[in-house]
Fold these 3 entries.
Entry 1:
Amino acid sequence: MRRIAILLLLLISLPFSVAQGKRPFTFEDMMKLKRINEPIVSPDGKWVIFSAVHVDLAQNTKIPHIWIVPIAGGESRQLTSDAGEDRPRFSPDGKWVAYISPKEGGSQIWLIGFDTATGSFTGEPRRLTSISTEADGETWSPDGKNLIFVSKVYPDCPDDACNKQRDEERAKFKVQARIYTTLFYRHWNTYFDGKRSHIFVVSVDGGAARDLTPGDYETPQFTVGGADGYDVSPDGKEVAYSSNHDPVPAASTNNEIFIVPITGGEARKISNSPGSDETPRYSPDGKWIAWRMQKRAGYESDRFRLVIYDRKSGEIKNLTEDFDRWVESYVWAADSSKIYFSAELEGESPLFVVLVKPESRFLTNDYGLAPPDVPMLNLRRIAGGYNDNLAISPDGITLLFTRMSAQYPNEIYKIAMKDAEPVTHMNDAILSQVTMTPIESFWFTGAHGDKVQGFMVKPPNFDPGKKYALKYVVHGGPQVPIGDEWSYRWNMELFAASGYVVIELNFHGSPGYGQKFIEDISGDWGGAPFEDLMKGLDYAEQKYPFIDKDRECALGASYGGWMLDWMEGHTTRFKCMVSHDGMSNTEAAYGETEELWFPEWEFKGTPWTNREMYRKWSPILYATSFRTPMLVIHGQKDYRLDLAEGFEMFTTLQRLNVPSKMLYFPDEGHWVLKPQNSQLWYKTVGDWVDSYIGPGAKR
C-alpha cells in the first residue's frame, strides 16, 4: 500500500475519534482543492513546474495557473495569475517557458523568460502564435528551434487566411443547419464542424505555422485526457504521431504511428498492429520509438502492451507481452536503457520498470502480483499507490509523478533511490481541517468462482456498534477500474461524509486482474458483473454487521447507469437507485452513439446481425418488473450515451407510477464539469438518497 512520508496525510487517515476537532468533508471543501496537472522538470534538474486548476464556486469557473516547486521539495509558488495559463514547458536550455493562454482572445502559445537561480519568470511574456484556429498542446523540439502544437483546421484550407475566412463566413450564416455524409458526425460532446486536428510547427522566432499533417484525418486522435499523441525526435528533425486512417473511423480503433520530417513532407506509417497504436515517445539516445500497442481490431479494451521500434532496422519489439496488465503512463530513463510505467493492479496503479535490452535481467521479478504470474526477469515493480503522469529528471536519478488516493487528490511525488515522497503540498491546509477514513479492501468469491475485490469507505466518527445505511456505487467503463483513487465527480469520501458506508466493486470487466477477467464482461453485461454485484453485497452484509440491510441505495454512471437500469428490472433489494447517463435501450443506443466499435464488440455485432444479444441486455424490456424509486440524470451534450436513453427510462418509470425524478443538464455532456452544476448534482443525489435511507426517511 502507500508509503506516505508526511505526518499530515497520516493524520488525515486516522479515525475521527483520534483526530479530534476536525469536521466531515464537504462539497465546498472539495471545490477549494487545487487540481494539479503533470510535473515538468527543468533542464538543470532543480525545479518542477506544473499547472494547477483553481475553482471559483461563486463564479462557476475553473481556471489554471502555473506553479513551481524545487525538485528537492519545499514551498510551491504561483507564477501566473492572468487569464488562465496552462501546460508550461521548459525550453531545452532552460531559459524560456512556453505555455498556453487565452489572453488577448483565443488560446495561443506564449513565451516568457525563466531565471533558474530563483525559479522565477523574467521580463514580459511574448505571444508566439496568432493562428485563428487557436493553438494547444505545445511541445519544444529538443534543439530548441521550434515548437509543435495542435490546432483544428479545415483540411482543404491551404493556410490560416483560408481558415479565418471560412469561420467568418460561417458566423454570418443565418441558417446553422449542417449536412453529413459520413459517420463521426458528432463525438463525445460536440458535433463535427468540418475541422480536423492537425499538428503544426512554428519557429521559436515566430512567423507562420506550417501544417505537418495535412489531410482529412484527426491527428492525433481524440482522447479524453491522457498523454500527448505525438513527440519530437532528439535531433529535432522528425515528429512521430498517432492517427486513424481507416475509411470508417467511427467503427475502428486502428490508430497507427506515423513519422514525418519536421520540415514537412510525406508521412510514413511504422506500426503494423490492427489494434490501436498510440502515445509514441522517442528514446533520449534517438535509437528507439516506444508506444502503447493493442493487438485486436475494434476492441478498445484490449491489453495495452509496451513496444519499441528500432529506427534503424524497423524491427518492433514487445517488452511486456507476458505482463498481463495494461501499460498506462510511461517515460524513458535518461540513458535509454529502461522505461518506467504505471499499470492498473488490484485497485492501485503501481509503478514498474522494464529493461529495453532482452538480454538484460533484474535479479528478481517482483511484480507485486500474488503469486507472480509471469516468468520475465526484465520487469519489476518499484512503488505502490495510484500513480500517473511520469517524468524523469535530466540526470536520470529522480522519477517524478502524480499520486492520489481516496483521501487526497493529485500531488506531485518523486522517487530518488528511496521510497516515494511528496514534492508538493498544495492541499494540505484544507485537508488538515477535515476528517476522512481510509479506503479498505476486501475480497470475495464472485462469478465463475473468481476472486473479486471490493472497496469500502466508512463515515467519519465511525462506531462499529451502530447500524449504517449503505451507498452501493457501480463504476462505469465498464473496463475502467476503481480503487484507492480520488474523484471529483464521484467522490467516495464525500458520499461517506454524511454518515454512510460506501462500497464499490471491481466486478468482471475491470482492469487490474488480468485480461481474461476484463474480457469476461463482453457479451455478458448483465451476467457475471451482476452476479458479482449481488454476491459482493451478500458478502458485505454478512461480513460487516454495521451495514443496515434495510437501508441500501445503489448508484451508478455510464455502464454503471446501464447496470442501475438493469437492476431496476432484476432486483428489489434496494430502497432507491440513481442512474446517471445510463443506457436503457441497447438497440436504440447503437444508432445514437458515436464510437460504434464499442457496442459492436461488446454485443458481438450490430442490431441487425445479432439482435438477440442487444435485446437480451436491454433493460427497458424488463419494465414490467420496475419497482424501485429511481433518480435519472442525463446531460444534453452526452453523445456517448444519448439523452434519449435517460428520457426513455424516466418516461417508463413515470408511466408505471414508480417514484422517480429527472435531473437534466442542458449544458453538460457525459460528465458534469461546471462547479455549480456539480454542486446541484451532489445535492440532488444526496437529497434523493437521504429521503429513502437517511436518518429521517420513512421505514
Entry 2:
Amino acid sequence: MFFKISLMVLLVSTGFLNAQAEIITANSICLHGKAKYPSDFTHFDYADPDAPKGGTLTLAAIGTYDSFNMYAIRGNPDANISMINDTLMTPSEDEPETYYALIAQKIEYPDDYSYVTFYINTNAKFQDGKPITPDDVVFSYNKFFNEGLPQFKLMYKDVVLKVEALDRTRVKFTLKNANKETIVNLASLVILPRQFWDSHNLGDPLTVVPPGSGCYTVKDYKMGEYIVYQRLADYWAADLPVNKGQNNYDAIRYDYYRDLTVAFEAFKAGEFDFWQENVAKNWATMYKGPQFDSGKIIKEEITNEIPQGMQGFFMNMDRPLFSDRRVRMALNYALDFEWMNKNLFYNQYTRLRSYFVNTAYEAKGLPGPEELKILDPLRGKIPDEVFSKEYNSPATDGSGNIRKQIEQALALLKDAGWEISNRQMVNTGTGVPMEFELILNDPSYERIALPFQENLAKIGIKMTIRTLDSSQFQNRAISHDFDMIFANYNPVFYPDSSLRIIWGSAYTNSSYNIAGVHDKAIDSLLDKIVENQDNESSLLWYGRALDRVLTWDSFVIPHWYLNRFRVAYWNKFSRPAVLPKYDLMVGVASTWWVDPAKESKLPKRNSKN
C-alpha cells in the first residue's frame, strides 16, 4: 500500500489561485499539526551522523519467493525487494505521519489542494546511473494506475485529473476533490525506472532483478533460498538529512527458512544475526543457554509508542453463517483471553478493544454530544449498543471456567435461530450443524487456536483448524476462500482514506478488505472521514464513531497486543543512544551498525553461497 505523508513547513509565497488560495512551498509534509524538524535539519535525532559503514547484516525470512516484483497481483515476491526503490519523500520514525524531501527536494501546493507540484532533485538518479526526471514520475504514476494493484486506481481515478512534466525539474498533479491526505499519498509515490518497466507489466511476476531508485540493489540470490542486497557506494542521496547515519551495512542478506522453529535454532547456532520474537512462551522459556549467559547473544525488550492495529480471527462476511451479528458476537465469548494470557503468554499481553489503540481515536466510555450528532442519523443501521454501552472484549476470571460466557453465547445463538441438538449446534430451521474452518499460515498459531476450538466444542460448534504454507494461505486470503482467517490490520496514526480500502464496500473483492465488509453505514462514516481530513476536530469524532461501529459489529474476534519489541541479537552491533518511537531501525534504513571490535569476539560464521 502506498504511504501517507504529511507536511510541516515554511510558508514561502502567497499567490492567487481561484479564490486567492495560499501557496505553500516546503521540503517536508505533515498530515496533522507541525513537523518536528526545521527546513535546515541535518539528520534525524535517532540517527548518528558519524555511524560507521561496513559489515553484513544476516536475517531470516520465512517461506519462499519466486518473484522480484512486490507490486504484482500474482506470484510470491521477496518481502524485502521494496528496499531497491525510493519514494518522492520519506518518513520520520519519531513523529506521526511526517515525511521529508528525498527524490523530491521540495513540494508546492495551494491550500485548496487543487494541484501539487514536486521539484525533483537534479542529483537524483536510478541505480543504472540514469537521472530521475519528472517524466519518470509521470511514468511511475501511470504504471501503477494502469497495471498495479486495483486499490491504487480506485484511490485516484476521480481525484487526479492530469499528471504532467512541466520542465526538467517539476512534475505537476492536477487534482479534483482532493485534500491534504491526497498530497501526502502522492508524495509517497514509488519511482520506477522507465527504461526497464516500459517493457515489463507491473501486474506480472518478475524473475529478473529490476534496477531501482534506492540505496540497495540485489547482489546475489538463489530463488526461494536466499537473497543478498548490497549498498551502492555511489548512492546519490547518501548524505541527505533523511539518510545521514542510516543504511549502514555494506550488505543485508536474507536466508529463507520454511519453519519458524528451524529458523530459531539456526539463529542460536549463529547462522544469522537478529531475531524478533512474537511468541510469549518462547520469550519466557527458550532464550537460555551458554550463548546468552556469556553475552554473545543479547536478549532485550525495547519499548515503543506504536499505535496498535487489529489482530484476530477475521470472519468472512460472504459466508451466510457470519452474516448474523449475533453469531459473530457469540463466537467471541469462546475466546478466553485471560486464561490464555496466564497459561500461554506469561501475562505479557493486553487484550485489544479498539481499532485505534494508543491513539486519540480509540473510543472510550459512551459517545458524547459531538459523536451523537454523527451517530444519531445512523440509528437502526448500526448496532444499538453503540449508543448505550462502552465496547470491551468479553472477559473471564482466567480460571478456564467460562460457564457465564457460554450462557451469554447460547442466548445470542438461540436468538439467531440456533440450538443444541445431540451435542451439536444446529440451525432450528434447516437442521444444519454449525461448522466452519479457520486457516492459519504458521504452525505456532495453532496453540492459540486450539483453546478457542475446545471452547467452541463445549457449545456444540465444530471448528476445523487448517495450517497452510505461505503461498496457499496468501492465495486463499486474496480470493476470500475462507470461513475464518488469522489476520491483522496495520496500525494507523489517524483515520484516513486507507480505511476505505480496509472496510469500504468498493473493496470487498480486494485482499485488503479481509472480512469482505459491505455496509452502507460504515461507507458513510468512511466518506466523512475522507471529507474531514483537514478538520482535526471533526476527524476526531468521526474516528471514534467509526471505532464504536466496527467494534460492536464484531467482524473480528480480537486478540492482543504488546507495546515492546522483544529482540535477541548476536553482540556485534552498536546503535545511537536515541531510539525512534515507531520502529526498530535494524534492517532496511538501519540506524544500527556493525561494530568490528564486538564482531571480532564472536565465533566465525561458516561462509555461505
Entry 3:
Amino acid sequence: MPEDPTPTLAESRSPFLRHGATQPVNWLPWSEAAFERARREDRPILLDIGAVWCHWCHVMDRESYEDPETARLINENFVPVKVDRDERPDVDARYQRAVQALSGQGGWPLTAFLTPSGEVFYGGTYFPPEDRFGRPSFRRVLESVAGVWRRDAARAVETARAVRARLDLFEQAEAEPGELSPSLVARGVDAFLAAYDERHGGFGTAPKFPNPGALQLLLDRCLDTADESIEHVVEGTLTAMARGGIHDHLGGGFHRYSVDAKWIVPHFEKMAYDNGTLLEAYARAHAVFGDPLYARVCDGILGYYREVSPALVEAGGFPASQDADIGPTDDGDYWTWTLAEVGDALGGDVALFEAVRLRYGLDDPSSGVHTAHERHVLYEALPVAEVAARMGVSEAEAEAILDEAKRRLKAARDRRPRPFVDETLYAGWVALVASGHIAAARHLGRGEAGVAALRALERVWVEAFDVDDGVAHRLGNGETGGYLEDQANVAQAFLDAFEWTQDPAWLDRAERVVEILIRRYRDPGSGAFLDRPRGEGEALGMLADAHLPIVDSPMPSGNAVAALALLRLDALGRGEGYRGAAEKVLRAFAGSAAEMPTAVATYLRAVDWATGPVTTIVVVGDEGDAGADALLATALATYRPRTVVRRIAPGRVGAETLPQELAAMVTGAAPRAYLCAGRSCAPPVDRAEALAELMRSFRGAA
C-alpha cells in the first residue's frame, strides 16, 4: 500500500500544533491536502488559529477539542485545520479580518468556518462547552453550522461573498493614497494626546496595550518641540506601565496587555515583539529624561531573557514567547500571590510582609485576578518613601527590607512550575529584541546586551538569509518562507548593529535584505509592500488576496518599518533610489492614515523621518583614538530623533558618501565630530561634552 502523503500535526516543529496531534480531532495542518479533501467531500473547513502562549486556546483545547463527543461532531462534519498564528502570520492576518468583519471581534483562539474554497461564512473566538458568557456552546455552534451547510450551502456561500465584499472595502480603506506632509504627524500626535488617560497613563480605556510606537513618536515630538504637555504624556505612560502589574516586578519584562485601565491585572503571556520594542522605548526615554526607573525596567528586560533562556541567548537568539499559565485550569497562578503564599515565602517575617503589603498593593481589591480574587498581582502601589514613612523607618532601611522581600518572593516563585518558554526563533521577532538590546547598549552602556544582539543577528544572517529569497520566517528552515515583517525588522536591526559597531558588514547586509524586499514584496500598483512575496508560493484560501499591512497590531507595521529602513539607508548614503522607494510606501497610505492615526504610530514615525530634518553625525578619528572613541560613544548614547551616526577614519575622508553639506566641511583633522541637521551644519567640535550639547540644542531646517 502506498504511503499516505497527507501531512500531520505530529510532524510539525510548532509546539502548539504538536499538542493538537494528541487530541481526538483529526486535525490537518494548513495545506493543499486539507483543501482538496474539503472539496472532494464537500465539507466545510473548521479553522482553529491559536498559539502556544494563548491561555484561552488552552482552555478551548481542554473543554472542546479534547472532548471525545465534540471531536466526533467535528470529525464527522468538517475538515479540521489547525494553524499556529506565530508560524503563519499571513493566514492569521486574513482570517482575523474576515471574522472581525463578520462578528465584530477577533483574537485567539480564532474559530472560523470556511467554504471548501477557504471563504469565511461563520466564526468567532472562544466558544464555551455550555451556553455562557453570552456565547452559545461550541457543540451547538458545530451542529448549527453543519446543518446549514447540509441544508442550504448556497446561503453559507452567499454569506462568504458578503464577508469578502466587506473585506475588500476594509483593505481599500486602509490603503488610501495621499500626499506626505508634516501635518500628518501633527494630527497623529494630537490624536494620541486626546486619547491620553490622565489618571492612569496610556491611551484609551480597558483593555490597555503598550504602544511603543506611539511612545517613540511622542518622544521624538517632545524633543523637536520642547512641548511639556507631550513630555507629560510620555513620562506618565512609561512610568504607569513600569509601576503597574503589566510589568513583572520579580522577573523583569512585560506581559502582553492589561485587562484594566490601571495597568494592574495583565494577560500574563510575555511576547518578544512587546519586550523588544519596549526595551528600545525605555532605553531612549532614559537617555532623554534620565529617570532611574527606566534604567531598572531595561535591566529587568535584559535580565529576563538571560534568565529564562540562557543557553539560547548565549548561542544567539531570543525566545518567541512565554506562556501565561502552566495549564488550562489556572489563570496566571505562577505570576500571582495569595496573602498566605506571601507570608510563607517571607518566612513569617512581619516587617517583610508589611513592606510587601504596602509597596505592592496586596490589600487593594483591584489587584485581585478576576477569576480568583484571592490571588493578587504585584504592582507598585506606593513609592518607597511612603512605605518608609508608614513603617517608621528610613528610606534606606525600607529599600533594604524590600530588596530582601523581593529576593525571597523571587526564590519562592522560582520553585513553582514555570510556564512554557517557546524558544522557536522567528527572524523578525529575534530582530526586534536584538534592536532593543542594541538600544540598551547605546543609551545605557549595557555592552553585554549589544554583544548578545550581535550573536543573535549573526545567527539570523547565517541560518535564515537566502541570497534569492531573503530572510526566512523561522531560523534554520527556509521552507517556511519569509514575510514582510521578517525582512523589515531584520533590515532595521542590521542598521542598528551597524551604527553601534560601525562595522560596514552590517550595512551591506541590511542593503541586501532591502534589495530582496523591493524585488519580491513590492506591489507594482501602489509601491507599498505586500505581507508575503508577490505571486510566489501557495495561494490557498484567502492567501491569494493582496494584503498591505500598515496598522501596528501591536507589532510594528511591516510597511512602516520597511520605510524607516529605506530612509535610514538613504541618510547613510547607500543609494539614490531608497528615499523614493520609501516615499512611495508612505504615500500609498497617507489618505487612510489621516483617518486612523492612533492605529498607525510607526507609520507616522516614518512620515516624520521623510518630512522632518534628518541629522547626520560624522566622527572623524581612528578606532582606538581616545578622543574619537569618546565622541562616538556620546553620539550613540545621546538620543536625537531622525539621526544617523558614522565614523570615518581620517584617511577615508573624501572617499565616503556624505550629504553635500557635510562633504563640503569634513576634513581629516581628528578627533572631530560634525553635525548637520537638514541643510544646516554646526561648527565641528572635538570634545564629547560639546557634541552632547549640540545634539540636544542644535536645530536644522528641513
